[in-house]
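For practice. Any example?
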Amino acid sequence: MRAVQVVETTGPEHLQVREVPEPQPGADQVLVEVHSIGVSFPDLLLSRGEYQLKPEPPFSLGVDVAGVVVSAPESSGLAAGDRVAAVAPYGGASELAVFGTDSVFRLPDALSFDEGAALPMNYLTAEFALHERAGLREGETVLVHGAAGGVGTATIQVAKGMGARVVAVCSTQEKCDYAQAAGADEAVLLEGFKDSVMALTEGRGVDVVVDVVGGSVFTDSLRCLATLGRLLVVGFAAGEGIPEVKVNRLLLNNVDVRGVGWGGYGMMRPGYLHQQWEALLPMIEAGAVKPPIGATYSLDELGRALVDMDQRRTLGKSVVRVR
């Protein structure tokens, strides 16, 4: 079978599509015929050897996939022919892939394979961030940075599904429009966002900031928080280094900064990812969660898809189509 592999950790420009042996599932694994692969930030970091996991090359990329079950343990409740989405630290960017039963989810009929491949990492991260880390309550206001990207649009939709008001922050008007189409109530430009957000909230500020950008927006994000507000640190896509916080600001304003490390938490707790998936299903059925798909690519173009994402040329979640 064909798989997209990192042979040397020299970046997405040097990925190789190679013929590799078909995987043989273990007793607690599901074999999936992959139809679509979600293009994810961890794939980019893995290709450069910059991710917290450092598998020995050669290895296959691929964090999010959707496809059809080939075989599954009887205890999983899955059977050959079932449509599924799945997530793993890496290894899904191939024509066939194996996943632990805890990481495979039945895909609702209302969603395509492309949409299924856009769901697991981004939407489970958003659910973890908002529910577990923020303790988001209905009626609260959430500010989302990088709101037109994959994690951003996922966070918008999950926050709306939980009954929040959502303010999107984006670098261009095109991205603002995209974020509102994904479900945001309001969208403001990154430049001067603090003043815009304070005006929208009549000086009160927001209850939760979800920050996948980091860098220079961090301090103004803190200043946007209402009393008892929570700033969630999800990532550092800006590439400007890791920001620091003066803790007296937290004390004076009664606000929190909270880390969001979904993978290290969820994947270490048997059954947790399925609990999260169950929380998403009513949102999918209600139409609040429907992943917006940006660009689509072939298997041979996964490297280009990662470069496009890295250079912020894409909106929503990019997807590689295998079949």
User: Anything to note?
Assistant: The mean pLDDT is 95. The longest helix spans residues 272-286. Residues 122-263 form a domain with the Rossmann fold fold (CATH 3.40.50.720). The CA atoms of residues 157 and 289 lie 5 Å apart.
